[in-house]
Structures are given as structure tokens and as C-alpha cells.
Specification:
This protein has a domain of about 110 residues. It is about 70% helix and about 0% strand. It has 17 helices and 2 strands. The longest helix has 30 residues. The protein is globular, with a radius of gyration of 22 Å. The N and C termini lie far apart (about 50 Å).
Length: about 450
């Protein structure tokens, strides 16, 4: 127990800070929260949501957001998330019924799901760096206290469950591939079936979890490429359970929407009329201006741009500049780690764990860029499916600088890196509280 008290402290701190966000952020002042809430409401009323004309009204959304969701406006017609898979909303439906639809209660369920993401972030980093506890602690700290991440996990949004399933898939996959001993298909059977079941639950949660399917496909190729028969058998063991669970949703969508719209995405795109499109922005700002806005807004909103992107953390502007300097230092620190480390953790003797981490990050980034080719959605939260690899790299990169500073002292237990999680955690918690009480509440509350 003594070894895990820092993780317990991180989780308690996260629940306290996240609880403040859940209670203090004004109703509906999180991206798409009314639409996610109304999905649960429809299930509680005994109706299964169907994407239909009228679910999205850009003019009304602009008006109600401009009025800061004043109480005399009704949000019941905002239903453009009706195309989403149902698992997250089914989990929230009993809570909705028990609390008569209390928004805070639903937000707290999402917050608890987020605690699972933090726990798995810690376990993943600890698995890969068992001799460096500070890496696990600092990785968990970044996942727990990035202001935008706290704000999202403390809102009604299916991102919390999708992140949890991605984190579980990442941890289980890394644990499987870093086991010692000779690989036998029989020994791997329960791992493959388990991964397939979790992936299938992801198919029933959100499309972002689909990025783990090609990651797992690459892992199977790496593990079994020498024997095509074993590769085929492993593929069936993993993807058959996932396909059977996903097919429940895909067949339903074909029956409801027709054609091959297995995700309901075509029905969604046909209804969401008036959403800003990238081609219009290129005409307005030019290609260079649009790309510059994409990178700047993505960076800002990854760390914190609250409400419906209306409240950035640019008061003072130095906040973003400081965060940018930390990112640059982390990237340079990772390069230093790569070229100066002589003792490679045993888990990295194979390049597969590194490949898995990179694939999760690159596929997430590619999805974000791909979506913005059509729609203007420069929201950094779309990178959160890869937050564990990002936080791990951030922690390792900054920690490398501290190790280099301490190297001349030749301490058995380096002092700076062991206090690094506490220092960066304290700074992020203060930033969370500043963002909540100095930016979000004053700027998003109804006057």
C-alpha cells in the first residue's frame, strides 16, 4: 500500500478538482453536452434515438450559446448526437432515472469513468518503466490535471467511456506483448479473446475506439507473421468477438438508415447543415491562415479552451507561452533520452511497445486532421484518445532534463525527478482552479 499512496493522492485530487468542475461549470457549458444529455433522456423515456432532420439547428445553437444557455431556452431539441453508439448512454440511464435527470449526477458518473483512465495511465507507465516510479506518477498527473481534460471528464460526454476502453486496450496489449517466455497460441487465447471483447465494447461506445483495431492488427502481424495459419487463428480469436458485438450496432443502423451506413455517419452529416466547413475557411482566410488557425487552436484547446471554445486561457497570454515552452522542452528531452540512455528498460528490448505507442498517437492525430479536412473542428480534445502516450512522452522528456541536472551528484535516488510529479501536479491543480474560478464561471454563467 505504501508504494501506491502517490496514485491514491492523485486520484483523490482528481476527484476533488473534477467534482468542483462538475458542480461549478454552468449547465450545458461543455461541448455537445445538451445533445449527449438528450440521448440519455430519450432512453429513459423508452425511446431509442434516431438521427433525423431537426436534430441540429446551427442558428438556434448560435443563439442559445450567445445567451449562455439562459434558463428560458429549452435544450430538448438539441439531439444531433443521436447517431452515436449507445453503451455510454445506457450506463447513464439508470442514474438519470434515479436522480430525475439531475445533470450533476450524470457528470459525476463521467468523472468516475475518468478515474479509471488515470489508473490505467499509471499502470501502463509503471509496466513500461518499473524501475522509475516517477514516470508512472507524472504520467498519471498529466492525464488527471490537464485543465481541458478535467473539464471534459466532468461533463456529460461519451469521451469518458471511450477513453477508458482505449486505455484498457492499450494497457492489456502492452502487458500481453511484454510477457516473458516463448509465445504459444494456446497461451495467448484468453488474451486475444479478452482484447476482442473490449474492442467490441468500444465499437458500441464511440467511433474513436476504432483506431485500436489497426493497432491490434499490426500487433498480430508482429507476433505471428512467421506462420500464416497461426496469424489467421489469432485474428479470428481477437476480431470475431469484436465483430459480433459491433454487428449488433451495425445491423441496427443498416435497418434504420438504409444502405451501408453502418455507423450512422451519413445520416449525421445529412442533418448537420450549417456547421463551418474547411473549404469556406480557406476561401475566407486562405490556406496558410486556415492551417495556422488549426495548429494554434488545437494547441490552445488541448490545454484549455472552455465552454464551446469561447473561453481560452489567454488571460494572461503567458499561460500558453509557458505551456508551449514545456512542450518544446519535453520533445528535446525525449531526443536526449533516446540518444543518451544506456540502460534500456527490458520492456523496450523489443521495438513493439514503442510502435504501439506511436501508432496510437499517429492514428489519433490522423483522424483529427482528416476530420478537419471537411469540417472546422480545431479542438485539441480530439487528441485525448492518445493522451496516455502523450503524457508518457511529456513526463519522460521533462524528467530527462532533471536527471541530467542531477547526474553530477551521483545520488542513488535522484531527488528532482522524484519530486517532479508533486511539483507539476501542484502547478496543474492551481491552473485548474484558476481556469475554473477566474475564467469559466465568470465568463460562462448567466448574468
Amino acid at each position: 500500500m505504501a508504494k501506491h499512496w502517490p496514485l491514491l493522492l492523485i486520484l483523490v485530487g482528481y476527484l476533488l478538482v473534477g467534482g468542483l468542475y462538475a458542480a461549478q461549470v454552468p449547465p450545458w457549458q461543455a461541448p455537445d453536452e445538451p445533445a449527449h444529455y438528450n440521448y440519455v433522456r430519450q432512453l429513459a423515456d423508452g425511446r431509442f434515438p434516431v438521427m433525423a432532420p431537426g436534430d441540429y439547428d446551427q442558428a438556434f445553437l448560435d443563439e442559445i450559446r450567445g445567451a449562455r444557455f439562459a434558463p428560458h431556452y429549452s435544450v430538448e431539441t438539441i439531439e444531433y448526437e443521436d447517431w452515436q453508439p449507445p453503451l455510454y448512454y445506457l450506463l447513464l440511464t439508470p442514474v438519470y432515472l434515479l436522480t430525475n435527470g439531475t445533470l450533476l449526477a450524470l457528470r459525476l458518473v463521467s468523472l468516475l469513468l475518468g478515474a479509471g483512465v488515470i489508473f490505467l495511465a499509471y499502470q501502463t507507465a509503471r509496466l513500461l518503466f518499473p524501475q522509475a516510479e516517477w514516470v508512472a506518477w507524472s504520467t498519471a498527473v498529466f492525464v488527471a490535471f490537464i485543465p481541458q481534460h478535467v473539464a471534459m471528464l466532468a461533463s456529460v460526454n461519451n469521451d469518458s467511456l471511450s477513453e477508458l476502453l482505449i486505455a484498457l486496450l492499450l494497457y492489456l496489449t502492452l502487458r500481453w506483448v511484454t510477457r516473458d517466455g516463448i509465445r504459444k497460441l494456446g497461451d495467448d487465447r484468453r488474451w486475444l479473446i479478452g482484447l476482442g471483447l473490449v474492442l467490441g465494447l468500444g465499437f458500441l461506445t464511440k467511433a474513436t475506439v476504432y483506431l485500436m483495431a489497426p493497432v491490434l492488427g499490426v500487433v498480430l502481424l508482429w507476433q505471428y507473421w512467421r506462420t500464416w495459419q497461426r496469424l489467421f487463428q489469432a485474428g479470428v480469436l481477437l476480431f470475431a468477438p469484436a465483430f459480433m458485438l459491433g454487428a449488433i450496432w451495425w445491423v441496427r443502423n443498416i435497418m434504420v438508415y438504409g444502405g451501408l451506413d453502418i455507423l450512422g455517419k451519413a445520416a449525421h452529416d445529412a442533418v448537420v447543415v450549417g456547421q463551418p466547413r474547411t473549404v469556406d475557411w480557406i476561401g475566407l482566410y486562405g490556406l496558410d491562415g486556415t492551417v495556422q488557425r488549426f495548429f494554434q487552436t488545437t494547441f490552445n484547446s488541448f490545454w484549455g479552451q472552455f465552454g464551446w471554445m469561447a473561453v481560452p486561457m489567454n488571460q494572461p497570454r503567458a499561460i500558453y507561452l509557458l505551456l508551449l515552452s514545456l512542450v518544446v522542452a519535453a520533445v528535446l528531452g525525449l531526443l536526449l533520452y533516446r540518444f543518451t540512455t544506456t540502460q534500456v528498460p527490458v520492456q523496450f528490448r523489443s521495438r513493439l511497445p514503442v510502435l504501439i505507442l506511436w501508432l496510437v498517437f499517429l492514428l489519433t492525430a490522423a483522424i483529427h486532421v482528416g476530420y478537419n479536412v471537411t469540417f472546422v473542428q480545431h479542438q485539441g480534445r480530439y487528441l485525448f484518445p492518445a493522451l496516455i502516450p502523450i503524457a508518457l512522452g511529456f513526463s519522460l522528456g521533462l524528467g530527462t532534463w532533471l536527471l541530467l541536472v542531477e547526474r553530477p551528484f551521483r545520488r542513488e535516488r535522484p531527488l528532482l525527478v522524484n519530486y517532479f510529479p508533486l511539483g507539476i501536479g501542484t502547478a496543474l491543480v492551481l491552473l485548474d482552479l484558476f481556469a475554473l474560478f477566474r475564467l469559466i464561471v465568470p465568463n460562462l454563467s448567466v448574468s
